[in-house]
């Protein structure tokens, strides 16, 4: 997209590979499809979003059942509070075979995976999808995940980001270890790839030792696209340095506008062009044939389908704090928040949203489990488009991460009714103009840094080109 062309929204579909969307009551909605253990469930959603010309569908992930509340997973299992999380690699593989343009993304943790594994996974997905892969970078949140990976306790907040910084440095070096034209595949001379253009990484840091090079050549996007959703001060610094898409949580337009200004300034301070980073708040959309129908649906989502115990279970998970010893009407004190290694920005966001300091456990739990943690655009298709347009043109965001209230209906309603309105207003594409995710986002292909490689090119016993063996096919 050139600077002379009108600015257009970025739209991302937010998914979970399990029994619920990010809205924990979604499985109880009467028209919800509960075939989440079948591949076709995910392919149907991806094809719907591609029909709507979405930039990307990406999947959130957790590496444990919610088990912090009462030191047990019983309530998560009993009330369907995200007890199911399928492996994402298989799902993304299915989606890239069933679609041709939409970006495909997955969450992988810098705390419990290794740089080589993540670099190879997403480089492979980028090649097989023709340049549509995205990695949602997370540091993970709680002790339940740690205990599934042989540790007793999750790393502290700052330690997680220290590790994540080094993780990204190692992954980036692996993605850059093949130069663009290293792969020759000259069948006549027998030269498969130029060893002068393939480099060992030899990363040696506090957290990782990685030799390299990567076993996957440089990808169609140069590097897969990076998403990040840090809300704390350290998380925002990390996102300013690394993210191509910044996934935010802003309860209202005033907060979003301030966050947008602050984050763009932070991106510039990190030496990057703010125009090459998309800032996207998560939003729920509730569409009705009339305003009254939409309002009635919203009321059902807010008050009928989320069990209070599911709310507490998920809150304990995300804050890494066992709330089983508290009453729902207990005030959340600073010492409770300070004792948590979870998402520190959550309590601050709820205070801003409610406009008061004395928030209760009930307030916090409701925001985490229902539709209160982000903006809700509710009404007819025209009214929803009006609300989205106000945020977008008011420089509160570059687009939205759309979270489904239920599947597949929420995305089908949005694509069939709201997307055409946005297209008529010139706010969103009518066709994909490129083939890669970076093309959709208007971002340049990632280039190998214009510096000498940290290590010399590969050497071996011989660089001679061997004559072609006619017996080889």
TrEMBL record:
InterPro entries: Diverse_substr_monoxygenases (IPR051260), Luciferase-like_dom (IPR011251), Luciferase-like_sf (IPR036661), NTA_MOA (IPR016215). It is an enzyme of class 1 (oxidoreductase). This is Nitrilotriacetate monooxygenase component A. Belongs to the NtaA/SnaA/DszA monooxygenase family. SUPFAM superfamilies: Bacterial luciferase-like. FMN binds at residues 61, 107, 157, 161, 232. Its EC number is 1.14.14.10. It comes from the Bacteria. GO terms for molecular function: nitrilotriacetate monooxygenase activity. The keyword Flavoprotein applies. Transmembrane segments: none annotated. Residues 38-391 form the Luciferase-like domain. PANTHER family: ALKANESULFONATE MONOOXYGENASE-RELATED (PTHR30011), C2H2 FINGER DOMAIN TRANSCRIPTION FACTOR (EUROFUNG)-RELATED (PTHR30011:SF16). Keywords: Flavoprotein, FMN, Monooxygenase, Oxidoreductase. Residues 454-473 are annotated as: Disordered.
């Amino acid at each position: 997209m050139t600077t002379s062309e009108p600015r257009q929204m970025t739209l991302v579909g937010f998914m979970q590979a399990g029994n619920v969307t990010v809205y924990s009551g979604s499985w109880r909605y009467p028209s919800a499809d509960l075939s989440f253990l079948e591949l076709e469930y995910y392919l149907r959603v991806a094809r719907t979003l591609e029909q709507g010309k979405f930039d990307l569908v990406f999947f959130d992930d957790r590496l444990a059942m919610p088990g912090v509340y009462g030191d047990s997973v019983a309530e998560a299992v009993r009330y369907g509070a995200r007890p199911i999380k399928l492996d994402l690699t298989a799902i993304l593989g299915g989606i890239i075979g069933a679609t041709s343009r939409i970006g495909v993304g997955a969450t992988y943790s810098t705390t419990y995976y290794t740089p080589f594994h993540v670099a190879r996974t997403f480089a492979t997905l980028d090649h097989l999808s023709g340049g549509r892969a995205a990695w949602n970078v997370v540091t993970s949140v709680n002790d339940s995940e740690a205990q599934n990976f042989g540790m007793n306790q999750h790393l502290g907040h700052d330690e997680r980001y220290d590790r994540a910084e080094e993780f990204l440095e190692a992954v980036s070096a692996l993605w850059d270890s093949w130069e663009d034209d290293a792969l020759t595949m000259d069948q006549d001379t027998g030269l498969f790839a130029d060893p002068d253009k393939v480099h060992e990484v030899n990363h040696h840091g506090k957290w990782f030792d990685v030799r390299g090079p990567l076993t996957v050549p440089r990808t169609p996007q140069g590097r897969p696209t990076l998403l990040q959703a840090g809300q704390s001060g350290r998380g925002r610094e990390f996102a300013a340095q690394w993210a191509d898409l910044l996934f935010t949580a802003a309860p209202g337009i005033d907060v979003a506008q301030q966050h947008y200004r602050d984050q763009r300034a932070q991106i510039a301070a990190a030496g990057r062009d703010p125009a090459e980073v998309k800032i996207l708040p998560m939003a729920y959309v509730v569409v009705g044939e009339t305003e009254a129908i939409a309002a009635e649906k919203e009321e059902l989502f807010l008050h009928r389908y989320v069990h209070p115990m599911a709310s507490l279970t998920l809150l304990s998970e995300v804050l890494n704090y066992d709330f089983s010893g508290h009453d729902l009407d207990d005030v959340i004190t600073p010492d409770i928040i300070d004792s948590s290694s979870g998402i520190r920005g959550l309590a601050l966001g709820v205070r801003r949203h409610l406009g008061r300091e004395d928030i209760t456990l009930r307030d916090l739990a409701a925001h985490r489990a229902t539709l209160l943690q982000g903006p809700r655009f509710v009404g007819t298709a025209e009214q929803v488009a009006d609300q989205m347009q106000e945020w977008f043109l008011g420089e509160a965001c570059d687009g939205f991460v759309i979270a489904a209230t239920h599947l597949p209906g929420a995305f089908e309603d949005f694509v069939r009714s709201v997307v055409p309105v946005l297209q008529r207003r010139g706010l969103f594409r009518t066709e994909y103009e490129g083939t890669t995710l970076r093309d959709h986002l208007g971002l340049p292909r990632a280039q190998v840094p214009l510096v000498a490689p940290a290590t010399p090119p590969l050497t071996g016993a011989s660089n001679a080109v061997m004559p072609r063996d006619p017996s080889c096919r």
